[in-house]
Amino acid sequence: MSEFTLTLIKLAFLAVLWLFVIAAVGVIRADLFGSSRAVARAARRSRTPRRERQPRQPRQAAAPQPRMPRQLVITQGNQAGMTLDLSAGAPITIGRANDSTIVVSDDYASSRHARLYAQDGQWIVEDLGSTNGTYLGHTKVTHPQPVPLGVPIRIGQTVIELRP
Amino acid sequence: MTSPPDRLPEQVPVATQPRKGASLALLIFAMVMTLAAFAEVGLARDGRIPTGLFGYGGGLVVLAGAAYYVQARFAPYADPLLLPLATALNGLGLAMIYRLDLSTSRDVQDAIRDGKKVVTSGLASAGTQLQWTFVGILLFAVTVLLLKDSKILQRYMYTLGACAIILLLLPIVPGLGAEINGARVWIFIGPFSVQPGEFAKLLLVVFFAGYLVKKRQAMSLVGKKIGPLSLPRARDLGPIMVIWLFGLGILFVQKDLGTALLYFGLFVSMLYIATQRISWVLIGVGMLALGVLVATQLPFLGHVNQRLSIWQNPEPYFDGGCLLPDGKVVSVAPGTEPYIQAGNTIGSGLTACLKMGGDYADSAQLMKGMFALGEGGVLGKGLGQGEPWRTPLAFSDFIFDSMGEELGLTGLMAILLIYALIVQRGMKTAIAARDPFLKLFAGGVSFVLALQVFVIVGGVTRLIPLTGLTTPFLAQGGSSLMANWILIGVLVRMSHQARQPAPQSIQDEGMTQVVSLR
Lengths: 164, 518
What we know:
The complex is a heterodimer of chains A (164) and B (518).
Chain A: H1 3-33, H2 36-47, H3 49-62, E1 71-76, E2 83-85, E3 92-95, E4 102-103, E5 114-119, E6 122-127, E7 134-136, E8 139-140, E9 145-146, E10 153-155, E11 158-163
Parallel strand pairs in A: 3-4
Antiparallel strand pairs in A: 1-2, 1-11, 3-5, 5-6, 6-9, 7-8, 7-10, 10-11
Chain B: H1 20-46, H2 52-74, H3 82-100, H4 106-113, H5 126-146, H6 152-155, H7 157-169, E1 177-180, E2 183-189, E3 192-194, H8 196-221, E4 224-226, E5 229-231, H9 238-253, H10 257-275, H11 278-297, H12 302-312, E6 321-323, E7 329-331, H13 337-341, H14 348-356, E8 359-361, H15 364-376, H16 399-432, H17 436-460, H18 478-499, E9 505-508, E10 513-515
Antiparallel strand pairs in B: 1-2, 2-3, 4-5, 6-7, 6-8, 9-10
Helix pairs in contact in B: 1-2, 1-3, 2-3, 2-5, 3-5, 3-16, 3-18, 5-18, 7-8, 8-10, 8-17, 8-18, 9-10, 9-11, 10-11, 10-17, 15-16, 16-17, 16-18, 17-18
């Protein structure tokens, strides 16, 4: 085997090694921003004529309404930085109990503290009889109340917000 | 706790889709890379595809396939990167060990025939490594299958912590443990030798996580504020003092700076993750510096001094050097005056040094490793074309230098990036986890891997004093492979738990919800 061939093989292997690393980073990237194929698929779907008619109607109808929040962000507390996707519309429970959607571990929260649920295109916050109460902005939540975008909800030391 | 909302990333996605396809594709890529490494070794040495490609490479392909099946079947939402990355490292290590395996390595046999000096202390054996890989992947599968909810471990935190301490103490027990290459980290059970410290590390993470979840409120909230720092109360310093003394104990009994650094660093980092207080890190670093300073000043800890001396200036120690009580280093290598006077046979250097009343040490291994790195340069010699077998323990402690000689800086950077990606995925799992115990557990497990890579890679590249820790996944050794595959299994299981969608309610009336947990 000639020296030249061996050098080529050597460089080829290093290239394979780096391609592997780049592929791994690519998977992370797809995880973060959605894979390019998925984005392309979504774009193609929106281009098909059958689908085109449908989104236009709700867009006109939805224009005067406030925008629906799409994610929930924890801005303070031990889970700060975590976000939840709200597009599924499943109710969210918050408390110290392990089966809560958001498990908070501070002494000022009750085990089943509060819950959020979607109703008629709005997210509603409801206090579940907690000891220290749930605050929407600066007011204590005494009955189920709609949550506007960007208004902090305080549960013990945890603060969450709905974002578009 | 104080991070302002505007610093939050735009979108932290909670991945709710299984990424089995991406995982399989990357795994196949890792396989191809391993097989390519075997092929390159064979082509460079014999000019043909080696027979080992089908045996060892094929064996690894089957094992990784089985691991993938277990992950896809029982933890479909698991992080797609962990298994392929670990497999890639394991495969690269296996290829390098195969290359160094004396029975298959023709250039070493040639060298022996030519009468060149060849180090034969300990033998590389690709067959053994493949067997241990099998056991390791088996343990990975068992971990993924059995550890349905990692939170169960929190219940047994004190038991597991006690187990960790017992494991760490086992090598000191006479009759069970023995000193190999100057480090007392092995125990012998029948024909097997086990490094219990590798497993103790995982158990300690469980214990620290459980403990800190309980105590972190007090540790993170109470305390005086001086300037930008908030200092903890004196009584909260208890645990860190205990771990510090424990680390000093390791330093005294095992003369091992790296292991002490590993456990102490692990505790300090987990304390930081739990409390988010920078003052803990400063206190930890200060205590570590104090500990090392004390260790170098104590007269009966000459070894630590000597380690530092070799680290700063290894040249006088090449093939044997003697640190005299007054701090001077005299070479007692073969051919020097003291060596010839002491009998001019193997071991004369040590005899001569003892006669002078100094501490004997040999830096040849470290320096040969450095030579290997230098020989490799930027692009390396190419697999199978260097001479990494010149370094003692080129297949275990110094496998990173062997990689450096044959893959060059370019290859080493890729390997370090693979480690970094594993750690990043682990930290990501910690962020995504919903439970504080799991957060700390995942964070600690990934940090301990990172710290171990730092200590050993820093050691063999002379960034920090050398310590005989294993290079995870690359180095030959059963304990290390088993422990690290368990670690990956734990992370896979936790990332599955963290990334799977929250249970959907079946019926939603009143305060009681019925959810499906399947």
